[in-house]
Design brief:
heterodimer, A: mainly alpha, Fumarate Reductase Cytochrome B subunit, two-stranded antiparallel sheet, 2 strands, about 60% helix, about 5% strand, elongated, B: mainly alpha, disordered C terminus, binds protoporphyrin IX containing FE
Amino acid sequence: MNIVFSLLAILVVIAAAVLGAGVAKLYFLFGVIIPYASIAVFLVGIVSRVVKWAKSPVPFHIPTVAGQQKSLPWIRNSRLESPHTTLGVIGRMALEILFFRSLFRNTKMELRNGPKLVYGSNKYLWLGAIVFHWSMLIIVLRHLRLFMEPVPSFVFAIQGIDGFFQVGLPGLYITDILILAALSYLVLRRLVDARLRYISLSADYFPLFLLLSIAVTGILMRYFFRIDLVNVKELAIGLFTFHPVVPQVTGVLFYIHLFLVCTLLVYFPFSKLLHMPGIFLSPTRNLANNSRMKRHVNPWDHPVRVHTYGEYEDEFREKMKAAGLPLDKE
Amino acid sequence: MYDSGKIIAGLIIFAALFTSPVWYDVLNGKALQRPDLVLPSKENQKECVAAAEFMRRDHMRLLNDWRYEVVRKGETYFSSDNGKEYEMRFTKTCLGCHPNTSQFCDQCHSYVGVTPYCWDCHNKPRNLSIQ
Ligand code: HEM
């Protein structure tokens, strides 16, 4: 059911682009107005989300670590897995963001005959995730050739490595194959395992299908139904220099690709894709494990009105004396 | 807001990276120039080997087909839609009509950021003594 709903949602998005740009030829709407609007929604959405998160206090010091904490000098501590310095935290965050360190530790639990509960390491999710994310990053960086004039030299370097095998013309990019393989795995992973299927929601399938259709339309456009890139670049540069031109691009595939990307931008700040800024704001990752060295003050603590014993005695001295109770101060 | 210094710094870096094409293009200024192509002017060179619209999009796939036809299948001639026959030669045919690559091929290619590796082996006409 969830998966049908997500598929239908994607089909509606694609149909909107086909009807709007392909049939009604609303090029200015689909090439200029919608991209501007979705970039605005994306930026404002992310910034307001992050500000909202930053407003919530972190009452406890809760880094979840996987290594020995810094304590006595003769106990070897783990600097990256359980960092106690800011530098260590930066290193740990970098490992997490660039290499998905904690996902690498992913385990799988299974009930075997016996009955016996077994745990095993499961690296496939990590592999699928890292291949997808890095491919997407490289593809987006390669797209800068369409957005920046003159094309920055690092883009050529990336293209050279990505197109290393020089298969066919236009040259085949390795990341195009990798992103399709990784996304297909990530979809199949949710479908094949009954337990995983049971916990998968539309909000899990939709982003996968969205990314998959962006990649598929891009690949179709590059290798099969080509469009004139000079017009695409003119449109993109027009957008970025705030001198938008009426798009000269005619291929409907381009508008589908672009509309799907706009959908992604608008969907982003309201969905689980927010893990992108979220990882930076995770207290379990971004706090140093130094609770034995520094006191973490709960920002929720407001001053509590205390009544010390001395004050108590002052207040009831006469009565206590009369009752014959012992007093600290006579 | 807690840790506002770090949060605001992070948000500024994020926004600057996300909008980097804007800064880059606006600072570079001359971005709106389309490639400036010099087309063949000789009388017998008035038409390309296929429709210009097709060539603009698909010339690299045509070249790939030519290469395959010649090198793998041993064919020599390509008959275009307008009934003419062309010898499937990269340097001789394409660059015969478009000899000045820096005012033609390279114009588009540097604009969209492609660096065809063909010239590693194939000569450009101006490198030859005959032209
Ligand atoms: C989330 C962002 C995006 C993703 C993941 C994405 C993905 C892809 C992929 C996988 C390809 C196949 C060819 C290649 O790898 O270069 C492609 C091609 C293409 N994309 Fe995107 N795309 C994105 C954003 C955009 C945007 C914003 C535009 C608007 C200008 C765009 C325009 C194109 C064009 C014109 C091609 C064809 C390139 C060629 O023929 O070489 N893409 N895209």
